[in-house]
Bifunctional uridylyltransferase/uridylyl-removing enzyme
Amino acid sequence: MKLSQEDLAGLIDADDLRNRLTALTAGNDGDGSDMKTRSAVLAMLKQVVKDARGKAQAMLDEDGGGLLCAGRLSYIQDELIRVIYDFALHHVYRIKNPSAAERMAIAAVGGYGRGTLAPGSDIDLLFVLPYKQTPWGEQVVEYILYMLWDLGFKVGHATRNIDECIRLSKADMTIRTAILEARYIWGDEALFEELVQRFDKEVVEGTSSEFIAAKLLERDDRHKRQGASRYLVEPNIKEGKGGLRDLNTLFWIAKYHYRVNRQSELVKKGVLTRSEYARFKKSDDFLWAVRCHLHFLTGRPEERLSFDVQREIAIRLGYTQHPGMKDVERFMKHYFLVAKDVGDLTRIICAALEEEHVKEPRGKGLTGMMRRLRAGRVSATAKPVEGATGFVVENNRLNAVSDTVFETDPTNLLRVFQIADKHDYNMHPQLTRLMRHSLKLVDGSLRADPEANRLFLSILTSRHAPEKTLRKMNETGVLGRFVPEFGKVVAMMQFNMYHHYTVDEHLIRSIGVLADIERGNSGDDHPLATDLILTLQNRKVLFVAMFLHDIAKGRPEDHSIAGARVARKLCPRFGLNDAETETVAWLIEHHLDMSTIAQSRDLSDRKTITDFANTVQSLERLKLLLILTVADIRAVGPGVFNGWKGQLLRTLYYATEPHLSGGHTKMSHRQTIDKAKEELGSKLEHWSAKDRNAYLNRHYPAYWLRTEPERLVSHAELLHKADKDKRQLAFQVIPRAFEGVTELTIMAPDHPRLLSIIAGACYTTGANIVDAQIDTTTDGYALDTIFIGRELPDDEDEKRRGERIAKLIETTLRGEERLPEPVSKKTGVKGRMKAFKVASEVLVNNALSDDYTVLEISGLDRPGLLYDLTRSIATLNLNIGSAHISTFGEKVVDVFYVTDLTGQKIANIGRQEIIRERLANAVDGHVELDPAAPATRKVQRQAS
């Protein structure tokens, strides 16, 4: 890029630097080839580079110009290379009468060739020779490169004569692209101009279709590597979708085909409109500002906007906090809007060029296509779309016959997407462009139009590809204009590690997940949801609720409550009746309930199920809520939904269903226990009657109420074998591939710190506890079943891993191993977690259970947190009835059902306050250990 002298003032004085370097050779008759002089030269250059870059950073902080900063850094580099070359030429490898071969031109290539550099960018150089390499040329190149390397630059370089440049450009698209962007820096300028002219004549001419196809393929491959969505919350600003490389690709293609040297010439050529060029420049400048700040901040060529740098970059760029949105969230929303603009530009221009110059070589370019469109003419091979006057299809691409098609009937802005969805058409790039230019037609009257809303609802609830169509609507801007509430969450990110995508991308993906479930494409992951969706009385309310469930994110109030209010306003507009509207609003208001209860409540506690059933009130709502919950979690990001979460949701569903279907028999606890014992006894007929009767009296009532029949049998066999072998410790490891967990059952003498020992052993081995069931037998043994996240694909390997953990628990219980000190003393918050601040909170609630006080502990997650919490709970003389662990990115929510040592709830206000303080300290890393731990263990407990 071209900068004025005012932009570059004070950065580096090349003439003064040359004089100062020359002065270093005064004592050697102008010879600077000795090592002492070289060291002095290097030291002087290091200081000059440090000062100049420091000035460039200060200027960036002052004026905020991304392209200005990139241009200044490029200018500094140019001047540095010129000075080093001149010093080498006049003071190190001096020749009085150079031959025709002893010439060279130094050219910048790659991003440096465009006159832009980030602080950590590679310096890509091409040394152009007239003929073959000479000793003089080799020495000069070597001197320049070693000097740059010693200055700390990463230099990519090639030394070639012009014939080699031409030959290699024809064979290698990367080399061709580099030379396309070559920019003269210093040396023999006539030599460089000869290269440019021959390259244009012998390589570029007549090969634009080949080059365009290669660059578009390269772009697509890069997007696959980086992640197909431009809305990933830790984007790569250089290589990611919507990043700088996409803008580069656009310019490469346009420059190659239209033979332009500056981006502004694309307007004169009719490739970009003035407004599109303004968006191009604005996007380019913003991305360069972010990139330069990122490199300066990290001190390295970091290209990923990770969580740990986003807030600092936001502050540097001047973003402030607004109600409902943090400063970093406002910055990232701007980033994603820019990425969307980049996507619009590259999609429109690259696809148009692909259409015209790759698939249709005889075309006359984008300008010609615009003229044909304005004249109301389309290709003779285009076919009218049946039932949709004004639209044609060609090569499976939908196009308009005239640029007035939307002005004539604004509902066509919705109809065009319904047509594309129904027939699986792609959008012609010019149609996309026309839609963007017609967004002003999406006004209040169109939003109130019944036909427009009918069309939108048919797209949203389509059985074809609603996700694809909604994403296209979002990319063109139609979706955010037609549903302004959706427009408010476009490009909005939530600054946490739980959500992988922006809010709008999450909502669109959730519709895609829902459609997959309905088609039966996800049965292996969530079979219950797949079965239930086919039994719904009204699928329409599910899709509308899914689309709107996070529509109120970014507001100061609870987004579930605000979202329900938005739904009550929008649903009648979409054509839903009062009952449907109320169902959608209820689903949005309660869309987090099922996930929260399943993961953080004791599902064997009857009050948990009764309270949940009272909230849901109908079986149809329960079905809708389960399916919506599954799709919501699945759409958060890869790996967030797993088999264990699915199992918890199914358990909650099956426990609640009888309360809502009329099938709940209200069987007493005693009857339930007697039935469980009877069924187990029938499966243990190979035991002696004495052993069988003794075992059936070995457990407390709660064990029989909450343990699944399959697990009742495996526990019985484990304890029976331990008795026969006269062992006090016994272990069983069962990999469960479908749930994605490994089940580890431990029988051991009752011990007040057993849960803490198990948690410590898991921490030491790197295992993640996702759930557990913990019980005590009437004869003083603990029977603990924990579930750890699966790590290895093969069952046998995973079983051996579980056995290693069990062995560590055993040796620790025997006193042969010592667990580490409280984890907080040795483990700090590391990596990306440093970026987050989660206030520690401990809630004490006596209303959630009839028998227990419920402790809900939330804070910043870290390794070994469960270990520290259980050690602290032991010092508080509390019995754990059940505990549940839920992690949402950087935030952890651990829920413990507890009583005092007499089995009573914690009613004393003063003691509740001590519990809050002690556990909040444990979350924050301050564990208070009491050497006089309680001598008795709780009657029963369950942890997850």
In short: The first helix runs from residue 5 to 8. The longest strand covers residues 879-888.
